[in-house]
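WARN no homologs supplied; continuing
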Amino acid sequence: MHAWPASEIPALPGQGRDLRIHDTATGALVTLDPGPVARIYVCGITPYDATHMGHAATYNAFDLVQRVWLDTQRQVHYVQNVTDIDDPLLERAQRDGLDWSALAEKETALFREDMTALRMLPPRHYIGAVEAIPGIVPLVERLRDAGAAYELEGDVYFSVESDPNFGKVSGLDATAMRLLSAERGGDPDRPGKKNPLDPMLWMAAREGEPSWDGASLGRGRPGWHIECVAIALDHLGMGFDVQGGGSDLVFPHHEMGASHAQALTGEFPMAKAYVHAGMVALDGEKMSKSKGNLVFVSKLRHDGVDPAAIRLALLAHHYRADWEWTDQVLQDAVDRLGRWRAAVSRPDGPPAEALVEEMRQALAADLDSPAALAAIDRWAALQDERGGTDEGAPGVVSRAVDALLGVAL
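OK structure emitted
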């Protein structure tokens, strides 16, 4: 599976700062020092309703992570998956009378278009669950053969008790985990499971549903969590720098994935930091596919909204915050974009070196994009009030906004 084209990142004077970011597992800010190559895995879409504003907010957050790292002169090894086989996708295809694979292909293509328009940096490896199946099957067999998994009526489940570090990503108690498991694709009430929280690794073939050769597992398809584990271990290995996604993935997805990987390798942790973006609401409720209260990037683009304004609307909120999409949020972003473009269109302006450092400082401090935007607002206001004499300043500001925030002025 191919990703989308990368936009060019302008070179800036000086060098960025190391990223200090909130780690869900410890509940604290951690300073990441990845070495010359930073490794990040971000969970991708299930392609049946793409790309809504919640998606966009999540991928914007991890695009900022990459840009901060690149500004420190590091390389970034970024991996993202596509869950192109799963129950929600099959249910939507059946509801709409579509072939599931055609639906997945169509929505993935639309997602690529939206990511390109929003100037999100593409992953080095963009891997679908279906193409990862040959690598998933041996991992499930290894877990089963090691006693960390068991069969139940042809399905294979992971035993959470096989990982002594299970629970350290979310920090939740068993009651909270069970409730979330039931809400988010688990089956805690299925009879015969060793532990209600045990997640499925391999689902035996069901009549009328797609299935693949699972070698000694029999025909079937992979569970949700093992998909990401197989892709991450294959392309990044254990102990990579950031595992990212929306806050709704903390449990069960990231908790279970960490335990799968730790049971497979005997190493801990799977990732040095677990980083999660907040949820975006509409009309008082979290945007979700099940509720259908979605604002789509493609619809906004079709209506003539500049993608740079969409991105500024996202950047106006701290990545970890839960916030609500409104017409005013978008209008504020459109107005801000206009002010910035007017400010950098002049031949000279106030000095920009201090602004670039202020942007770097804000983004290195847990991706504080609102603080970075406020700094640019102040420079633009000063430019509007009295201008300046530095001929290179508007160009420096324009390049910094592009390189660090992904917004083309």
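Residues 48 and 103 are 7 Å apart (CA to CA).
OK
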